[in-house]
Amino acid sequence: MAKCFICDKGTHFGNNVSHSHRRSNRIWNSNIKRVKAVVDGSHKTVYVCTSCLRSGKVERA
Predict the structure, then answer these.
(1) Which one, out of 26, 44, 47, 52, has a CA that is 20 to 30 A from the CA of 33?
(2) In Å, how far from its chain's centre is CA 48?
(3) HSE-up (13 A, CA, CB side) for residue 43
(4) Using H for helix, E for strand and C for coil, what is the string for the chain?
(5) Could you tell me which of 15, 43, 12 has the C-alpha nearest to residue 29?
(6) List of residues 6+ apart from 57 with CB closer than 8 A
(7) What does each C-alpha distance from 45 to 12, 30, 34, 41, 57 come to in angstroms?
(8) Which residues contact 41 (CB under 8 A, 6 or more apart)?
(9) What is the model's pTM?
(10) What is the pLDDT of residue 1?
């Protein structure tokens, strides 16, 4: 899975815990989008999480 170019947010791992307390593996995927952005003065396609997009940390191309 991709990681955020700005904050390095990625996939988180953990357990599903049932009512009887049996555990199975589970994945939480971050909301990451493929975006054309300005990086070092040039246009690049990068993966960015939506929280970084909303906060204005990314300058869209």
Answers:
(1) 26
(2) 6
(3) 4
(4) CCCCCCCCCCCEEEEEECCCCCEEEEEECCCEEEEEEEECCEEEEEEEEHHHHHHCCCCEC
(5) 12
(6) 6, 7
(7) 24, 18, 7, 13, 15
(8) none
(9) 0.80
(10) 72
Number of neighbours of residue 3 by Cβ within 10 angstroms: 15
Residue with tokens 């989008």: 33
- Residue 20 and residue 25: Cα distance in Å, rounded? 15
Residues 12-46: pLDDT tens digits? 999 999 999 999 999 999 999 999 999 999 999 99
Query: Could you give the CA distance from residue 54 to residue 61 in angstroms, rounded to a whole number?
Result: 15
**What amino acid is encoded at 52 in this protein?**
C
